[in-house]
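Appendix B, record 7
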Amino acid sequence: MFDQVVLAGGGNRCWWQAGFWDVVQPEIGLKPRVIAGVSAGAATACMLYTRDSRWVMRYYEQALRHNAKNAYWSNLWRRGAPVFPHYRIYRQALVDIFGEPFAKLADAPEIRVGVSHLPRWLGAHASVAAGLIAYNIEKYLRKTLHPTLGKTLGFRPEYVRVQDCADVDELADLIVQSSCTPPFTPVLRRDGKPVLDGGMVDNVPVGALDASPGRVLVMVTRRYPRPQTFVVSHGDQQRLYVQPSRKVPISSWDYTQPALMQTAYDLGRTDGEAFVRRLPDLLGIAARA
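Structure tokens (predicted):
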């Protein structure tokens, strides 16, 4: 039914995708050949084929139980102590979650993870500043589904196959590179070159898709000024976009309220149930588009 799937980034908001998938996948027999993701969308894609969502939520409940803040400003005066705890917690979580079942990913769909390479005409620090400004303009002012400012500035995408990672450490590095968002993470390097969150180019990475005809399911994680579900024709492809029915009730980098992961997940399940009921009509719309 859907040959390819796109999972947008969004940090904790991607729990909505997990809830949506857990309902929709068994109902319609969803078996994509390719999944494209950035940031936490890429982590979610890997989770769908290695772990039960509820197991991972229980893991985060334990991992975050002693983390009271998203910023420890007193660490500014402590050498080697990070102000933001996210990078340490996130990377360790990826290793813990995907370490034991890592081999399962060999039999998963081809998962393509997007990272953003910095403009050649800017240094690393200037690129970070320019990229974050462009990203927030697109997010809060233009509310563009597929942004253009990052590409205009010279950010370049690279899409890396999860199946090319030799072990869980390489996988964890790839996902945190795809999620690299200073100051929550340090500026990270891939093959010696600094990279940033794949969302700097496009948080909804349709550029990673094959151009082959067919249907694509695109799962975003924030609300755009569009219907909850809508179809975009791209050549011989029919891309069916679905977004949350309301704002997902958790911030992307909030590491202090793990209980809200369940709330986001439950919203995804509710939206998934509605999607399954409407799917025949949606496919009819796609056929006419």
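Remarks on this record: DSSP finds nine helices and nine strands in the chain. The first strand starts at residue 4 and ends at 7.
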